[in-house]
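Weekly modeling sync, notes
Attendees: AB, CL, MP (scribe)

Item 1: holo prediction request
CL wants a bound-state model with nicotinamide-adenine-dinucleotide before deciding which constructs to order. AB pointed out that an apo prediction alone won't tell us much about the pocket. Agreed to run with the ligand included and paste results into these notes for async review.

Input as submitted:
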Amino acid sequence: MPMQDFGNGHQYVGGQLRQGSSGETFDVVNPATGDTVETLTLADPSDVDAAVAAAKGAFPQWSGATPGERAGVLNKLAALIEERAEDFARVESAQAGKPIRLTTEFDVPGTIDNTAFFAGAARNLEGKAAGEYAAGSTSMVRREAIGVVGSIAPWNYPLQMAAWKILPAIAAGNTIVLKPAEITPLTSLMFARACTDAGIPDGVVNVVTGKGRTVGEYLMGHADVSMVSFTGSTGVGKRIGEVALRTVKRLHLELGGKAPFVVFDDADLDAAINGAVAASLINSGQDCTAATRAYVQRPLFDAFVAGVAELYQGVRLGDTTDPATDLGPLVSRRQQESVAGFVERARGYGATIVTGGEIPGGDLAKGAFYRPTLVTGVAQDSEIVQDEIFGPVLVVLPFDSDDEGIRLANDTPYGLAASAWTRDIFRSLRATREIQAGCVWVNDHIPIISDMPHGGYKASGFGKDMSQYSFDEYTQVKHVMYDGTGIARKDWHRTIFGAR
Ligand code: NAD
């Protein structure tokens, strides 16, 4: 029995599911079992044309709707997702190999909260007050929607990424064409269908499922797309930037991360150990903000490594439908090979693998599992410290002075998220000021909230998801200026007419 009925196909255009035109099919595979979940008919550029045309057609009405009307349907959407929470959790778990506990307690509630947040935020678009900024005239600022947004999302949190892309865009009055990752498109399609069921007009939300290089790039360069919003790897982000800027589109890039986790010698060691385990293993480490590099001040180093290793060994890998399972597989065999490759190469250049570092056998061999892996004894400039691995792998390195800890935290090209662990107010203030990242937690690592901005520094991109700040990406401001005098020959006309 199929997980969901996608009856008429896997492209969502103008409020309808339809077949893709490429003639190519693609199997969405559950990476925990190797079973096919759904066979897609992929899009080609003609489907993108149809989706963009639907979005363009829906724009005048949707951008002209009042904030209250937009908020009304978004509130209904939040209620519908809540009603369908079990289906969303089940399909998300199957397509991405996530443990059902994670999708039920994290992905789906996060999406409901995000939807409810943007229903409220739609009524709070801010602007400067109208006023007289030059003698005899009145100025006002209009905050306006941009047009058709072309969005591309990654596979790590398919439902949440779809929501993060769609919600601020449409709350601000834009219409959207989203291309989810080809390996995990199903909950984006379910989200789009829920939008229609909630009363969001046809064409406001469209989803095309297809390959990045063909369909994705075509969407990014489409003449009728006014803004490009991309979440994914830094490498693909650079390519998308080139394509989008060729036609001068508004650009928003949420890219890779390599979050440091800095433990000072006065930290609560137990809290830091628990925090590091949860923050490095969430979603099997396939999280752009996951803790990947722990820098621990020398007096706590050995105890920290021993504590994390012990908890890693107790983590239960297994059946993702079982609520008792802690950790699922990686998203694909390809990702499993990639993660294993980083660890094998590190072994080759002398790393100590404290625990893990292996693909489990037995029953788990049918899935793309990888054991939680703790690595020490590598140089700061080694690949495993510098590059994004996107797997359940934590590297721990010691530091001596506070200066050194902060310097090492900043020493990668990325700047998405970071955490500092200390009970000293001055140390924490310094760390939050000097660490270059879009989010710095103190004594915690991972929680992301709808009301607060999320986005990168440095090679992690620019622009913000979530919160009111996301409207700075998804709106443009227009200065409107009224003459308030009715005088035909104004004072400033002297620049042309002189004293005449
Ligand atoms: P990816 O860059 O390989 O793919 C992302 C999306 O881009 C997919 O939909 C893919 O089909 C598409 N794509 C690939 N090549 C393309 C091209 N040439 N033109 C247009 N589209 C193309 O990333 P991924 O492996 O799916 O996801 C993991 C990455 O996403 C990691 O780097 C992670 O850090 C990042 N990420 C960042 C955030 C954030 O908020 N900054 C959030 C989640 C994931």
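Recorded for review: Residues 152-156, 179, 181-182, 212-213, 216-217, 220, 231-233, 236, 239-240, 254-257, 288, 388, 390, 416, 456, 460-461 surround nicotinamide-adenine-dinucleotide (CB under 6 Å).
Action items: CL to compare against the apo run; MP to circulate these notes.
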